[in-house]
Amino acid sequence: xxxxxxxxxxxxxxxxxxxxxxxxxxxxxxxxxxxxxxxxxxxxxxxxxxxxxxxxxxxxxxxxxxxxxxxxxxxxxxxxxxxxxxxxxxxxxxxxxxxxxxxxxxxxxxxxxxxxxxxxxxxxxxxxxxxxxxxxxxxxxxxxxxxxxxxxxxxxxxxxxxxxxxxxxxxxxxxxxxxxxxxxxxxxxxxxxxxxxxxxxxxxxxxxxxxxxxxxxxxxxxxxxxxxxxxxxxxxxxx
Length: 239
Fold this sequence. Notes:
single chain; alpha/beta; Rossmann fold; two-stranded antiparallel sheet; 12 helices; 6 strands
């Protein structure tokens, strides 16, 4: 049974910001879900659930029917009023004291910086992978949540859409693998839109010199190896 997160104090719960917590950080496709499964520790409701339960209702929106780009725009509206982004929503939670406990996940410099400063007992595992790897994983995972609207204009200028995300040689290699063009553009649009809102280097800037942070390259480490590295690191830092 997953730990429940409440947004008001009830008997037996404490503010989450006062408790030890492992926060997983990373962009779409870095492997956060596979990593947390390999870790095998209790998890709080994840980022998607937190947006659905806490953020969208406060914006007068409903998750049904929203595609990924619309969700990015709505969470950008939230960040305009709450600079800490999803970390501010997470900071409003109360849970029963427990360790280990994992939250999947934060992204971007502002969210991570806010969490670093407010969650004084939290540890951060930052999962990283190049845009090409993340895009390939999106293409292969075929999850219904990864839907976006693609216009005819975007199909016509898909190479322009890829600029800033992939080198043209990388795009050509993906096309050679036989992915349907519309599917490739859908996933490319998700990666491109996300990078507009969350710079891939942001978490490194926010956590520079922080002893509570571990950075892992998931292009080189499979989920089980990343989980083993995390457990060993937590023992080293005394958690």
